[in-house]
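User: Just a sanity check before I run the rest of the batch. Below are the structure tokens for the first item. I only need the designed sequence back.
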């Protein structure tokens, strides 16, 4: 299982790397050529979509870093579902229509899936954070008599 620190550092590193790569292409340190139909542009489209989708993972990872382990582990289960769905959406909605960074289909799909993940994450975090600290706090215990 992934721990808090690994997820926070890993998602931050991935975000930084993806945005650095996009920046290097934007300032033409890495050249894709002049033809927008090149595979480089489609690759950048996929990277941009995945990087945008990782932003809420990084943000909520930072939020849960300072909370109880039970809050983090509950939220982490939603990440295990979200990341494969995000990858599938990014790969499945590749098309050559649209702009330089996002195709219109990819952008629409990302604007649907990211808020859903954010709302689910926020709901899970608040629900688990406001729950009693002990799982058995509602049970009546005998005093060993």
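Assistant: Here's the designed sequence for the first item:
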């Amino acid at each position: 299982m992934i721990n808090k620190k690994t997820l926070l550092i890993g998602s931050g590193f991935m975000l930084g790397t993806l945005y650095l790569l996009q920046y290097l292409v934007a300032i033409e340190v890495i050249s894709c050529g002049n033809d927008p139909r090149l595979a480089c542009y489609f690759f950048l489209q996929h990277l941009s979509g995945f990087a945008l989708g990782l932003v809420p993972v990084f943000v909520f990872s930072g939020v849960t870093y300072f909370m109880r382990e039970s809050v983090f582990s509950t939220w982490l289960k939603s990440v295990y579902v979200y990341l494969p769905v995000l990858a599938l959406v990014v790969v499945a909605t590749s098309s050559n229509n649209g702009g330089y960074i996002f195709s219109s289909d990819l952008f629409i799909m990302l604007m649907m899936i990211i808020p859903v993940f954010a709302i689910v994450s926020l709901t899970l975090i608040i629900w688990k954070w406001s729950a009693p600290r002990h799982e058995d706090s509602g049970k009546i215990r005998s005093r060993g008599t």
